[in-house]
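Write out the 3D structure for:
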Amino acid sequence: MKNIKVVGDPNNKPFRSSDIIISNLNKAAQKLGLYSDDGYKIVYDCIGNKHGYEPDAMIIVYELIFPHFIFNNVHPKPILGVSRDNLNFILEAGYPNDLCDYFPLGVDSKVWEYRKKNKKEKFILLGIGESNSRGGLELIVENFCEEFKNTKSITLYLRDREASETFKSWVKTKSIEYNVEIIHDDRHLENFEDEKQIYYDADAAICLNKTSTWNLRTIECMSTGTPLIVIPYAGPRDYTIDNFSAINIDFTLEPFQESDISYLNSIGIRNHLFNPSMHPKQPYWAIAKKESVRQSMRRILEDNSLREKISIYGSNSAQKFTWEKSAANLYTIVNSIIK
């Protein structure tokens, strides 16, 4: 059995999800004696040899790139997904069964420790996502505005990163139109303490990720004891149970058209994958059903006992996904595929 080393985009900013994931996987592998510089080189979230690597295996975290880029840039390298749904997309793309698998990522419960929620005058709903990707923040804003129009007892706190001026303006316009309070935090934080405080200050959180098969921020959020509303798709499907460790939202997988991309461009959301015409098959994304989103927001606001239950069990569930387990799984899988 050969040791492993995970590498990624050298241009990643510190404290971005990719940087955190790569660092934690390597630290956990070192702790377990499974890491070495001359081990199998596993590239995280980089397509093929984009950064000059000669990888032994790839970790892919977005499903809608399949199959166009996989066969052009990766085949016949082993590909690893980070969720069951991620693996399903790899297989659907026609990738050889013996060259792919999946392993869940992890969370550090010593960093993202549980903290019991304290009652406050105003309820804070944390919206998790990124407007420079497919985080579904526009869905959170639209549904929040419609459900809580003219309501001052609840605040939507958007945890965004490096939002465009157009998107920030769109959010502000929506808040004025519906007479609701929205705090739009688009700072790029580079320390755990500031990020944790956002979770601790929130009474509940919602993530409507459209395409990413794993959202690191959601499992960190759960670990801190922040009750979570989430689409039970991709990563969240692997670690949440409806009404127990999270509230799961009904959703559909819908093809996206040029009109979808044009609309998102018009409100300042960037990086919408690729033009649909580039795909040999119609690409699609996970769209939360409007009524389900609004009902879930209302429930998490009004049902104190449900929030407390999800806070406790959600944290317990999240903390079972350790980085040590993740690194050990990665080591075993890569060595079983590469013979």
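The mean pLDDT is 89.
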